[in-house]
Design goal:
225 residues, alpha+beta, 3-stranded antiparallel beta sheet, 35% helix, rod-shaped
Length: 225
Amino acid sequence: MKMFVLMLILLNVSQHALGVQVYDGEDSVVLPCRVDVSDSRDSVVLWRRENLKDSTVHVRRSSGEDLNNQNQNYSGRTSMRTDALQTGDLSLTLRKPTIRDSSYYTCTVLREGDMLSKTEVQLEVREPPPPPPPPVWPIILGVLVPLLLLAAAVVGFFMYRYNLVMKDREVPQTLIRVKDFMKETRQSQSQSSRDSEGEVPVPPRSETVSVHVAPPPSPITSVSY
């Protein structure tokens, strides 16, 4: 009978290892452990880290938390669900994991000194990934915008100078055209004045109109017979 009970206990022991990965500096990480409610009810749950001298990480009894023998490195950083023994969810929450927390942890369920279940969890805490490189477009804009503004300023300056030069060229041309116009006007007035002073009046031409007058008809002499 004792051998039969021992075999049933061994069948309920879980020896498979679970792997959990997290980055250093995260708020928390959950080490999973689930058993049947029939095993967790009225039992003691012991979380341990075997490679430490003080291997106790967390203990939960039916009466509540028992942290008297907890390793000081985990003080204030571990917790379990308040209804863990009633639901069978015996997962352990570890706050602020660090690289030093990387190791194998065991979740053992005990009842009256007998081991009902044991689950091994491997926790790997990694260095956080390097930050992504800064986007390139701010750098490109930071270079292109000043160059475009400078190019626009240079073009605007040369356009302004070109307009000034063209205006300076247009003024003399306008003055020359005005002078030519005034010169032509004076010459025209002078020529008109000379023409009016030296002109000899020409009498009107008399036109001879020849009128042909027909001779009067000769009288007709009547002859009587």
